Amino acid sequence: MAEDEVAELFCCSICEDLMLAPTTLVCCGRSFCKECLHLWIKTNAQQGGIPRCPGGCMAKVPFRLPKHSIALRKAMEQLVPDRLACRIKEAEEEEEEMPCFGGFKAWTEIAASRDILYGSSIIVRQGSPGIVVGNCDDGCHLTVKFDEREDGSELCVNVVPEALMLPLPGGFRLHQRVVALYELLLNSDMKVPLGSVGHIIGSLGGDRVTVLFEPKQEKIPEYPVSVNIREVAAQRPLVGGFSIAQRVQASMSLVVGNKVVVHAGCRGTVLAEFSDTRLTVVFETSEAAPNCFNVLPLEILPWCDTPPEFPAGTSVRAVHHLMSPCAIIVHAGTRGIILGGVDPSLVFVSFENGPAVAAAISALETDTDAVGETACLGGSLESGREEPETCLERSETMAPEAGSSDLSSIDPEASDEEAPDSTTEAGSGFACAVSTPINSARATVVLNTD
Ligand SMILES: [Zn+2]
Ligand SMILES: [Zn+2]
């Protein structure tokens, strides 16, 4: 194959010369010089259009171009080395790129430093990210492609340099709501507690952002604080809908090996998101042993103060069956002990012979005669609610010693047979780890009984 024919294979159809920084578009797979594509995009954008593929496929061209193809460049270096060297030399002589107005560089990331108005309406919000396309011919504006415009238009905007800023470090945006991932000590009496929420107001350079925290406590400063970008994170719900520093409680006893390390109802605090499926929680166990665990969302429940009529430790009875979507979890009349609050209408209850369950306070009554009268399981429905007749026979199985425990331990391995002795934590130092047979699957333990 003649060199001319080979060179033809590497021709950019915009400049009709050998490709420099060959860049392949995903729309149709055609390749062009990176600079030719930039010029194509800029010309189209400044003529008020939306740049489309120069290969003729009509797809929109991305303003952020992909990296150039190393394979194509190497192939040219091997097959047409002399022509390529000559082409590179020409391009170098041609021009040196001038910075844009305000010192910004074309094709670099920026953000709007203030709201950008068209007439009286905002078309780009302060903080919106975008990319500089180049100088406008009028000698004072820059053409910018913002990622989002308030009016939904995809066209570029011509703005003065004062309306632009370099992007904040860490991918943060102005006004973004963030949460403190650590307790941030400022001085002896000012600190920002873990989980404090604030919003980003700027950056002092490097990898620091300035945050104005919401002064919910008197020790939180009312002035902006400069923090490292790793000390805060965008405020968003974590897996399971929990949040940083949220107060939680174990929804079941957590077992490591065959040892209960955290009892159902034990309080804790969410420290971080450990993975896509687990949260790191520090539990207030009495043990000196490690008390930080990476738990699944179903292993914890939100915690709040209990309602005044049901303080923690109160003996209660279910006034009607507590249901999961397909089974009765707790029968009407079953006794239990309040462990803690979940939200204003839900409490976490350890029921006799069964799992600890988040129950609506409307489904509970104070057990005035905790000793004596035997509850009639599955009987008298006082709530008037229509309950299906599918009673679970096994729920009648009694625990070895009723009332021996104010915390119900849930062993996922426990079978439906008589309470096995092996689940008693002999000599483990845990006061109340008598497992009882569980009728419902592990995943039905946490449920909203409403
Ligand atoms: Zn070209
Ligand atoms: Zn195309």
Secondary-structure blueprint of this entry?
Layout (H helix, E strand, L loop, with lengths): L2 H7 L12 E3 L6 E3 H13 L23 H10 L1 H14 L14 E4 L3 E3 L2 E4 L4 E7 L6 E5 L10 E3 L4 E2 L11 E4 L3 E4 L2 E3 L4 E9 L2 E6 L11 E4 L3 E3 L12 E4 L3 E3 L2 E4 L4 E7 L5 E5 L8 E4 L4 E3 L12 E4 L3 E3 L2 E4 L4 E9 L2 E6 L4 E5 L3 E3 L84
Antiparallel strand pairs: 1-2, 3-6, 3-9, 4-5, 6-7, 7-8, 10-13, 10-16, 11-12, 13-14, 14-15, 17-20, 17-23, 18-19, 20-21, 21-22, 24-27, 24-30, 25-26, 27-28, 28-29
The structure holds zinc ion (2 copies).
What does this structure look like?
The protein has 450 residues and is mainly beta. It folds into four domains: 89 residues, Zinc/RING finger domain, C3HC4 (zinc finger) (Herpes Virus-1, 2-Layer Sandwich), CATH 3.30.40.10; 67 residues, SH3 type barrels, CATH 2.30.30; 62 residues, Roll (SH3 type barrels), CATH 2.30.30; 213 residues, no CATH class. The protein is built from four helices and 30 strands. The strands form nine sheets. The protein has a five-stranded antiparallel beta sheet with strand order 8-7-6-3-9. Helix 3 packs across helix 4. The N and C termini lie far apart (78 Å). The site of one zinc ion has 6 residues, from strand 2. The site of one zinc ion has 8 residues, from loops.
